[in-house]
Amino acid sequence: MIRSALIILALASVSSIVVADESVLLWPDGAPGAVGTEDADKPLLWVYPAAKESANGTGVIICPGGGYQILAVDHEGTQVAKWFNSIGVTAFVLKYRLAPRYKHPAPMQDVQRAIQYVRAHAQDYHLSPTRIGVAGFSAGGHLASTAATHFVEALSGVNDPISHVSSRPDFAVLAYPVITMTESFGHAGSKKNLLGDEPKAELVKLMSNELQVTPRTPPTFIFHTGDDTGVPAENAIAFYSACRRHKVPAELHIYQFGPHGVGLAPGDPALNTWKNHVHDWLRNSGLLADIKRTVASGKVTLNGEPIQWGQIRLTPKDAPHLPSAFGMIHNGNYKIAAERGPAIGTYIVDVFNLGDIIAEPTVENAKLVGTPGEFIVEFTADAAPIDFDVAE
């Protein structure tokens, strides 16, 4: 591996300084289909490890955008990597091959190899091999969605140890992504740069990733903006709809305001909340810790009387990477299924009374009841019912 404190990326249309702990050539002996030996012919990863005291064992490969012609390695690469580090995730920014020098399948090969590399070296980076994801912005979002729908399967009996693991990511984060190559709302520049001037219809369909979603597509988070005219939000909607059809867990946020290419959107206090939603989604999906979840059920009373309509919130205590859990209370009963339940561990329990279902409810009925954090509960694998009586 190549180690460096300062790495300078110089491509035909990009000049950006990227500070990373380490850079890794994905194919030290030359990438498949390489047309030369220049920097543009050498896909690599810049490594940004999470701090030891906060690292949670999750890793993500980040694909910057740029229409498959340039790489926005700063605001859609390094800055994003540092944000992932802030939530304990080790990040790898991918320098993939670009047009006009390269077209499909080179970028796809690069992201597939990147995921395989990180998974094969998970122990070296203190990562769980079952929590390796991919994130991408704009055309990088297309590349990330390609990784989520086109896999290289693990091979045994070959000399290359990186080929011994699958390229299927464990999750995907798509930021204002290019998705389709067939629909009118696709991005013509990305299509031309990736597939050429007159691609065959079969190839266009193959790389329209909303058409390639299957039940094996990993859980996916998507955000977009309604103001985006460069890559319309219909791209995000198409991929989300395909995930719904195939029962792939997915979350979609479309902000009304915001142009294309905002990155972390530090200048917009509304739009920059997308990363907070990503954090919540990763945690509550069980992607920030190796966990076992359990059913949570029981009865909830207020001053001895069943709460007719309410909510119960379970917040992990002293374990920020564990999922929170949430359920409804009806006629004094609550039940949260295991797939959305708490992890085995210690939780703080809060109860909210939403009042009775009556003809003239009062606003005052909708409130947190009891002392916040009054109940501390240890959830175990036996899923025994746990009852709460809130006194006021």
Short key terms for the protein model shown above:
19 strands, nine-stranded mixed beta sheet, 19% helix, alpha/beta, 7 helices, disordered N terminus, single chain, 2 domains, Immunoglobulin-like, Rossmann fold, 392 residues, eight-stranded mixed beta sheet
Describe the structure.
The chain is an alpha/beta fold and 392 residues long. The protein has two domains: 7-284, Alpha/Beta hydrolase fold, catalytic domain (Rossmann fold); 296-390, Immunoglobulin-like (Sandwich), CATH 2.60.40. It is built from seven helices and 19 strands. The protein has helices at residues 74-86, 106-120, 139-147, 188-195, 201-206, 234-245, 274-284; strands at residues 7-11, 14-18, 22-25, 44-48, 59-63, 90-95, 132-137, 172-175, 220-225, 250-255, 296-302, 305-306, 309-316, 325-330, 333-336, 345-353, 367-369, 375-379, 388-390. The strands form three sheets. Strands 11, 12, 13, 14, 15, 16, 17, 18 and 19 form a nine-stranded mixed beta sheet that branches. Strand 1 (7-11) and strand 2 (14-18) form a beta hairpin. Helix 2 crosses helix 3. It starts with 6 loop residues before the first strand and ends with a strand.
